[in-house]
């Protein structure tokens, strides 16, 4: 393994991808137009980071990942992964990256998992001892033991996904790109996949770039999230910071001794009572504000019995963010 670089294991500087598309407008007639799938995107991911890459359909996520693997060549800008230009040295890079596309399998449909893995062993020229060790570890942690001799086409989606994740890791990649790794999985399979990825990142320091529509994946795995829309990077930072960008609200649920008219706090105009149900009331307040002074004010003026604070639903936050940017 090479000396560790402290920052910029994945580096994008004003990367663009423009597709020339021909749209049919009638019989024998067509119109050419350009789709700017990725529009001047810059970011850096440090070695060992686990970053979420999210955005609505057609935002440019898969296009970015395809450029990071070398499948697509950028139309402009500079892109490096582990110091390698992916589209120029795709084969050399392939030894250092692992890719899982949730909607497609890299496994051989008619072969048992074991045979697919053997083929990868040869293709990637993985040293025997390392291959055996990695396979054993994946089989154990992803619970693949019973499945190794089953043809891929007979596996359930969750089993196949675990098989695909193992396949992407047999050659010890330093970076793993995951495009929708939990799509279509049941709750148990999702949690198993997430647990495995968390351990992989913690124990091996594998850098992970994760694209998903399931925000629980992000909440449970990534400290940092990047949001892309219409090919542009809209947000890059802590997941918690998204709440501020999305101007979201938290909810204070208070239980009073008895039913009372909606709580009104003259000194806190940003607080709204949004629901009253018997002695329970729901108050919405900006997520960027602290709940403590609000609680103190209510406790001083009302017969408070109990309370809880509900965090904003991250999906609502992101939807709001797309709306305010004119996206979706
Ligand atoms: N090969 C291609 N030729 C022409 N246009 C393309 C091609 N690949 C992607 N696009 C267009 O580029 C834009 C970005 O697509 P991309 O697949 O990267 O989005 P995405 O964020 O991965 O979406 P999804 O969440 O639906 O998978 C879309 O408008 C898409 O139609």
TrEMBL record:
It holds the Pfam family ABC_tran. GO terms for molecular function: ATP binding. SMART domains: AAA. SUPFAM superfamilies: P-loop containing nucleoside triphosphate hydrolases. InterPro entries: AAA+_ATPase, ABC_transporter-like_ATP-bd, ABC_transporter_ATP-binding, P-loop_NTPase. Keywords: Antibiotic resistance, ATP-binding, Nucleotide-binding, Transport. It is found in: Cell membrane. The keyword Transmembrane does not apply. Residues 10-255 form the ABC transporter domain. Its main location: membrane. PROSITE patterns: ABC_TRANSPORTER_2. It is a peripheral membrane protein. This is ABC transporter ATP-binding protein.
């Amino acid at each position: 393994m090479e000396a560790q670089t402290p920052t910029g294991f994945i580096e994008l500087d004003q990367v663009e991808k423009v597709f020339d598309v021909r749209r049919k407008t009638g019989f024998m007639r067509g119109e050419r137009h350009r789709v700017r799938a990725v529009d001047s995107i810059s970011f850096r991911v440090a070695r060992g980071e686990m970053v979420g890459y999210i955005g609505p359909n057609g935002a440019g996520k898969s296009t970015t990942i395809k450029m990071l693997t070398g499948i697509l060549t950028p139309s402009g800008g500079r892109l490096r992964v582990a110091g390698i230009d992916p589209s120029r040295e795709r084969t050399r890079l392939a030894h250092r990256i692992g890719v899982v596309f949730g909607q497609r399998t890299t496994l051989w449909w008619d072969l048992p998992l074991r045979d697919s893995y053997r083929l990868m062993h040869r293709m990637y020229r993985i040293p025997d001892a390392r291959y055996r060790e990695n396979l054993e570890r994946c089989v154990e942690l992803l619970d693949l033991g019973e499945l190794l001799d089953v043809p891929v086409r007979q596996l359930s989606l969750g089993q196949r996904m675990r098989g695909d994740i193992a396949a992407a890791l047999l050659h010890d990649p330093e970076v793993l790109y995951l495009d929708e790794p939990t799509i279509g999985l049941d709750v148990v399979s999702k949690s198993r996949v997430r647990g495995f990825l968390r351990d992989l990142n913690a124990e091996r320091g594998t850098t992970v770039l994760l694209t998903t529509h399931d925000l629980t994946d992000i909440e449970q795995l990534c400290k940092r999230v990047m949001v892309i829309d219409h090919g542009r990077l809209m947000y890059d930072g802590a997941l918690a910071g998204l709440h501020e960008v999305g101007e979201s609200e938290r909810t204070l649920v208070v239980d009073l001794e008895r039913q009372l008219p909606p709580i009104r706090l003259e000194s806190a105009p940003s607080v709204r009572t949004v629901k009253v149900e018997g002695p329970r009331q729901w108050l919405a307040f900006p997520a960027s504000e602290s709940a403590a002074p609000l609680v103190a004010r209510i406790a001083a003026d009302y017969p408070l019995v109990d309370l809880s604070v509900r965090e904003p639903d991250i999906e609502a936050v992101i939807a709001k963010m797309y709306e305010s940017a004119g996206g979706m």
